[in-house]
Amino acid sequence: MDTDLILKVTPFFLQAAVITVELSVLTVLIGLACGALGAAARLSRHAALRFLGAAYVSVIRGTPALIQLFLLYFGGPQIGIQLDAFSAGVIGLGINIGAYMTETMRGAIVAVDHGQAEAARTLGLSRAQAFRKVVLPQALRLMIRPLGVNINAQIKATALVSAISVIELTYTAQRYIGSTYKPFEMFLLAGVLYLAIITVTGKVIAALDRRVRLP
Amino acid sequence: MTQTPFVEIRHAQKSYGTLEVLRDVNLTVNRGEIVAIIGPSGSGKSTLLRAINDLDPLSAGEVLLEGVQVNKTLPPRAYEAHINEMRQHIGMVFQHFNLFPHLTVRQNVTMAPKLLKRLGEAEANRLAEEQLAHVGMLERIDYYPSQLSGGQKQRVAIARALAMKPKLMLFDEATSALDPELVEEVNQVMKRLAEEHMTMIIVTHEMDFAASVCDRVIFMDGGVVVEEGPPSVVFRTPTQERTRNFLRKYLEGAK
Ligand SMILES: Nc1ncnc2c1ncn2[C@@H]1O[C@H](COP(=O)(O)OP(=O)(O)OP(=O)(O)O)[C@@H](O)[C@H]1O
Ligand SMILES: [Mg+2]
């Protein structure tokens, strides 16, 4: 193993890792927003919204994320959507992870015992008040860990945007292989950096979960 | 003197698909009266009780509280406002307590008064202390529900309902989920409410409690009121065969 080479390229890989972190943060934020909207739609009283929510989830989860990215980035201009690679990556992957988060959030909300909302309604709270004050605070606690699983998957999925030439970790590794012919070292280094990002994220999520856990 | 009915249920009918759970139930409860509803499992007791605050809406029939129809047919928004207002007057206690696990005992009690009656922090705290003292739970005011026994949870649930100053209290097997040694502390709280002339409708499997606390016993079977009257009559000299059968089975079970 060429450790000198690894040390030499590490600063460039760290820069790329920053891009991977940015991609992860932005896609997760978009995903959380899409997930919240999706879950609200899936649980709506209106059949049309429920249908939209269900369609979003099944279309996104039923097709490869890579195809979705290609469709947005390469196919977008054909229908008037011009995005640079980074934006296309963030939006495409954000919408993608949003479908998984929709199901996570919906699952957490329906997992709250129905008697909770019932007790709140019995006291005279409106549907909205019962949701906000009683169901949601419990559902949020339930969804932290499963959302952590979604986020873990999402960090790894940012590697996909290398296919539309966003210069993040995976793309950087591939580029350095072209000039160094050392795929073992380059992919190993990239892998270690992914592991570091994921480990830190996992710890943050576990700490958050501990912090809001009920006695 | 004729009393205007406090609670009136007229021709209550409820079906789940083809299953008729309530068939033309009529019931009147006077102010301050304590009524027990007894009957075999599946006879429609909970369904009837939950129809009173429209938690399980009737298929047909009317529920009135002080002459005001609870289960009005209104456009969604108007219904929502109406039912939320009505429910503030109707406290309900569940078999499984349904305390809010993410809130302390204090917060469980103050949440609804703060939200719906716009009580300030100090006022809400005073109210919580008063209600919790009433059910003997003041020492646990800053505990979470998970830190309480079943009997303590149910007493907090009663305090939570009472904090809205309801005119009527509904109990659906409030002691059925409790270990036998915890039943009495909840029964004591309910007896105390009875002495204070709270109007109560109590679905129960505890015949002794019904006999000692209630003014009237309603025996239901198969979605109808089979027999009703003072506990001394219904328990000692029931006129209906079905009531006798039920009570005999109950006594055999108790042995
Ligand atoms: N949501 C529902 N869907 C279908 N059937 C229901 C529903 N809720 C209740 N039932 C049925 O209605 C009947 C009456 O139920 P209810 O809960 O009122 O009985 P109960 O007298 O309270 O019995 P228990 O003593 O077991 O609590 C039962 O046959 C029950 O299976
Ligand atoms: Mg019942």
TrEMBL record, chain A:
The chain crosses the membrane at residues 12-39, 51-73, 79-99, 147-167, 187-208. Residues 13-205 form the ABC transmembrane type-1 domain. It comes from the Bacteria. GO terms for biological process: amino acid transport. It is found in: Cell inner membrane; Cell membrane. The keyword Magnesium does not apply. Keywords: Amino-acid transport, Cell membrane, Membrane, Transmembrane, Transmembrane helix, Transport. The keyword Phosphoprotein does not apply. GO terms for cellular component: ATP-binding cassette (ABC) transporter complex. GO terms for molecular function: transmembrane transporter activity. It is a multi-pass membrane protein. Gene3D superfamilies: MetI-like (1.10.3720.10). Its main location: membrane. It holds the Pfam family BPD_transp_1. InterPro entries: AA_ABC_transptr_permease_3TM (IPR010065), ArtM/GltK/GlnP/TcyL/YhdX-like (IPR043429), MetI-like (IPR000515), MetI-like_sf (IPR035906). Belongs to the binding-protein-dependent transport system permease family. HisMQ subfamily. This is Amino acid ABC transporter permease.
Automatic annotation (TrEMBL), chain B:
Signal peptide: none annotated. InterPro entries: AAA+_ATPase, ABC_ATPase_HisP-typ, ABC_transporter-like_ATP-bd, ABC_transporter-like_CS, MetN_ABC_transporter-like, P-loop_NTPase. It comes from the Bacteria. It is found in: Cell membrane. Keywords: Amino-acid transport, ATP-binding, Cell membrane, Membrane, Nucleotide-binding, Transport. The keyword Protease does not apply. GO terms for molecular function: ABC-type amino acid transporter activity; ATP binding; ATP hydrolysis activity. GO terms for cellular component: plasma membrane. Residues 7-247 form the ABC transporter domain. It is a peripheral membrane protein. Belongs to the ABC transporter superfamily. This is Amino acid ABC transporter ATP-binding protein. It comes from Paenirhodobacter ferrireducens.
